[in-house]
Amino acid sequence: MKLSYYPGCSLHGTAKEYDESTRAVCYQLGIELIELEDWNCCGASSAHSTDEFLSNALPERNLKIAANTGLDLLVPCAACYSRMMTAGKENPSLKPTVKIRNLPELLREEDNFNRIREQVKTPLEGLKIACYYGCLLTRPPKLTEVKDYENPQTMDDLVSILDGETVSWPYKTECCGGSLAITHTDIVKRLTRRIIEMAMEAEADCLVTACPMCQANLDTRQDETSRDEGKEYNLPIFYITELIGLAIDGKKSGRWWKRHFVDPMPLLNSKGLI
Amino acid sequence: MKRHLTNHSLDALVARIGKTDVLACYQCKKCSAGCPVSPDMDILPHQVIRMIQFGMKERLLNSKTIWLCASCETCTARCPNDVDLAKIMDVLRQMATNSGEPLGDSRVPFFHSAFLSSIRRRGRIYELGMIAKYKLKNREFKKDIKLGIMMFLKGKLKLLSSKIKGKKEIKDIFSQVKKGVIG
Ligand code: SF4
Ligand code: SF4
Q1: Which of B30, B65, B84, B92 most suits a substitution to test ligand 1, by most atoms within 8 Å of the C-beta?
Q2: Nearest one of B98, B154, B123 to A53, comparing CA atoms
Q3: Are residues A126 and A96 in the same domain?
Q4: Closest Cα of chain A to B59: distance in Å?
Q5: Which of A77, A106, A135 is the last residue of a domain?
Q6: Does A226 lie at the interface with B, CB-CB under 8 angstroms?
Q7: Does residue A97 sit at the B interface (CB-CB below 8 Å)?
Q8: Could you say which DSSP state residue A32 is in?
Q9: Which ligand is nearest to the CA of B29?
Q10: Which is the closest atom of ligand 1 to the Cα of B85?
């Protein structure tokens, strides 16, 4: 399988470990990723909050480049994915030529799913995982065509074939506050604390996501929240590709963990996974 | 019965841009019940819809609510009448930005402006430059400095910016946006 790959600005910066683990997992599964030539930023929430034309024109430039490759377009960032899908819908001439794919759905496809199952070398036995989907992978369902948008399952299924234990919890699709992290940090701290507390109440050891903004908001604020609340918050926040990568080929994973704020090594050590 | 709307009314405007019918709302408040930032808003999502029906344009465009909305799409996904609230919030933000009037929040519009000017210049986001610009405008130098340094040490912030080859195409796209909207 060969795909065009749109990393977006996050995977080239704050979500570098998502980029690295995505490339590593796809390589292992025989999925060839070809980075989209001269891609540009999708505009994110700033474009759709400011100007309607801009919000479509920026992703459209990428879709046009992708259309020329004749390949499906993999967009691992949930926020970029949503912008590309929206632009594709607004300009139907582009959509039939470019199929836009998000990562959990791609990996959940029968062939890839089976390949992951066959390749598991380090089963994630004993690791209790809260699957967190956030907003834009599933919503709005009219755009994403996800049916179980209040209780999605793709990442739960993926974690299960790695032999990890998924917890049942009600905050799978709650919002982390997204880009308010810089402008209204207090709101993001309140929202992320609630999500982490709920995962802990469900007795999860860690949380897994497929969105760079969710990962950053949940991972980077726990230190501060611990100080504010006088209570320890220390829940590792993984990307789905990091857990798959760890299970099928642990060798490269060391450098991903170093990029986290909440260090996942003590947990992985205690479960005998590294 | 066909509802009659004048072209200039706020609900017609929202309907045209947002492709959604605010008159379908029956005020069940499901949108507000599920909204993650409703405790911080000055006008709740279901009230936004009511105020659009009443044509209370100024009050809406001056509100904090439109800037605190995190675009999480929960309201849109749950509305029993298919009112696309998240899109309506976009339309209201766009109208407010274009109005040239004082806005109900300064930080979020500053952020969007810094973010977009970074794209206009390079085609991609240069985080360090973008955040520095935002902080300069907003006089928030101390906040999150430690976080920034940690990010850098973890290889997540680049010191140098890079530009895409298609800068001209990006410039052309931005030239179609009304002047003064992006700083
Ligand atoms: S959920 Fe829909 S119908 Fe109910 S109050 Fe909100 S906009 Fe109106
Ligand atoms: S999209 Fe905005 S208004 Fe709707 S639920 Fe999310 S934050 Fe609230």
Answers
A1: B30
A2: B98
A3: no
A4: 18
A5: A106
A6: no
A7: no
A8: E
A9: 1
A10: 7
Q: Report yes or no on A112 lying in a domain.
A: no
pLDDT digits (tens, 9 = 90+) for A187-221: 999 999 999 999 999 999 999 999 999 999 999 99
How far apart are alpha carbons B134 and B50 in whole angstroms?
Answer: 34
Whether B119 and A58 lie within 8 Å, measured CB to CB: yes
Q: Return the ligand number nearest the Cα of B75.
A: 2
Residue A113 resides in a domain: no
For the domain that residue A85 is a member of, what is the CATH number?
3.40.50
Quick one: pLDDT at residue B18?
A: 77
Nearest CA to ligand 1 atom 6: B31
Say what the pLDDT of residue B4 is.
Answer: 43
Task: Identify the domain containing residue A177 by its residue range.
Answer: 121-270
Q: Which two tokens stand for residue B117?
A: 């000017």
B173: which chain A residues are within 8 Å (Cβ-Cβ)? 54, 57-58, 61
Task: Give the residue from B20, B73, B87, B117 with the most A CB atoms within 10 Å of its CB, the best one to mutate.
Answer: B73
The single-letter DSSP state of residue A58 is: H
Judge if the beta carbon of residue B50 lies within 6 A of ligand 1.
no
- Which of the listed residues A47, A77, A106 is the one where a domain comes to its end? A106
ipTM of the complex: 0.95
Q: Where are the beta strands (DSSP E) in A143-234?
A: 165-166, 206-209
At A95-151, the pLDDT tens digits run: 667 899 999 999 999 999 999 999 999 999 999 999 999 999 999 999 999 999 999
